[in-house]
Amino acid sequence: MREVLAAAPVGNDAYREDEAVRSLEDRVAELFGMDSAMFLPTGTMANLVAVSVLCPRGGEVLADQESYVLASGLGGLATVAGLQSRTIHAVRGALDAAAVRAALRPAGWGVLPTSALIVENTHARSGGAVVPLPVLAELSLLAREHGIGLHCDGARIWHAAVATGTSLKAYGALFDTLTVSVSKGLGAPVGALMLGDAERVERARQVRKQLGGGWRGAGVLAAAAEFAVLNNVARLREDHDKAAAIATRLGRQPMINAPVETNIVLVRVRDSVAVHRACARQGVGVFRLAPDLIRIVTHRDVSMERCLEAAEVIAAAIAQ
Ligand SMILES: Cc1ncc(COP(=O)(O)O)c(C=O)c1O
């Protein structure tokens, strides 16, 4: 990856002059069967830009209460995109179409109509749960019937595709806008892409520029991202196997995201601060998701053997 990065043909992407960025964007759009794609620094920015072109400022979006955009987006939907959000309950990231239908507000006197629905796949705060394709298809139909936009935060959609054997195009066909990350399981140093139809992505380029995302020389990062997309998707299965192995080792704990479907394990603990500290002392990184919840994420740079060693450290820390 570093060799590809060093050899990248770069230019000013704000003027569409960067060959490596254009190559990445074309490739990812083609993989998902969508019109166009745009490269951005982060998934957070990609989501904000996507939703900004999907909804008029001052509009309303529906999303699940545990979605990344609402739970971890630090209010960006409101402060940056100027949107009001309403939450819907979801089970392992799967929104219930009937609940969404009941929550929709049509345009009318004194009512702010719903502009878009946001889904997330895989669902981070549900421990990388895969939202089933039929659920997404039903929501897509519902959104189209009611003339509202459907955005998917697909930061880890690669994992969903690998875990279920669903094609990327099958996902791409369902959404008006989609964001994907290359800097998580795929292992690129930086980056995310926003996908949609050509007109939306063109408008999104303006919004990205407004947010300071018109970047020069981005090709070095795009080349690494394209390498990751080409070489590191199928191998995500190994990360899923590692997470399953860790879950099996910790199985006596009341795990909350069983079955583990992708590369994230969530474990309820008495005191996540104490567990985090004990693990850190042994060189094992776990994330404190809540006072009583830790998150373990597997990835390409930690082998199965090291994951099993880490599981022993985590088990001992939890037992303390
Ligand atoms: C589901 C989801 N969406 C978006 C993001 C934001 O990505 P970034 O950290 O690149 O801004 C994350 C980050 O972990 C995420 O888990």
From TrEMBL:
Domain of life: Bacteria
InterPro entries: ArAA_b-elim_lyase/Thr_aldolase, Low_specificity_L-TA-like, PyrdxlP-dep_Trfase, PyrdxlP-dep_Trfase_major, PyrdxlP-dep_Trfase_small
Cofactor dependence: pyridoxal 5'-phosphate
Name the UniProt record assigns to this protein: Aminotransferase class I/II-fold pyridoxal phosphate-dependent enzyme
Stated family: Belongs to the threonine aldolase family.
Domain Aromatic amino acid beta-eliminating lyase/threonine aldolase: 1-271
One Gene Ontology MF term: transaminase activity
A Pfam family: Beta_elim_lyase
Swiss-Prot/TrEMBL keywords: Aminotransferase, Pyridoxal phosphate, Transferase
